[in-house]
Amino acid sequence: MKSSHNSSMGEELPHAHLLHFISVLVFIVVLILDYFVFKFSIGLSSVIPLWIRIILFLVVLTFALVLMGTAHKVLFGGLFYTEQHEPSTLVTTGVFAHVRHPMYLGILLIYLAFILVTMSIISIIPWILIIVLYDKMATYEEQSLEKIFAEEYSEYKNRVPKWIPRLSSSKKNNDKNPSNMT
Description:
The structure is a single chain. By secondary structure, this protein is mainly α. It is built from 7 helices and no strands. It has helices at about 15-40, 45, 50-75, 100-120, 125-150, 150-160, 170-175. The two termini are about 35 Å apart.
């Protein structure tokens, strides 16, 4: 089943939007039940002061939103740009020179921010399951991109990490395109 995206952008995992929704719902239910109702695994919240947890939350949340916003800007030209952009070339500039899935990484960091503010240890379980889900979605999309961009995407995969961003893009990548230096 093809996604609504143009084939030049690759293909999403079938029912990806539903999986996103279900993962958010499960995570929120577990977090709320643990933090407000059962208080099963929030012992650390009494040890770590709220102001420290709020600072951690804001730092991680800000990083996640900047990461996602920057990726969106590279792909679509701006944070509030609503018209679909159909690139005919592989995007390897900006944040994509540092990590292959910045939007998914940003989403995973948003979950982490909520774990940090509540210190709900049990919420780590659905978060880990969500990480596995996002890895499967990313792998599926990468297989589609490999079909479209062939060797170019294979070289990109070898040069740029899937999840943990490099602080600087590789020299090989910068030699090809000076705009990659961010």
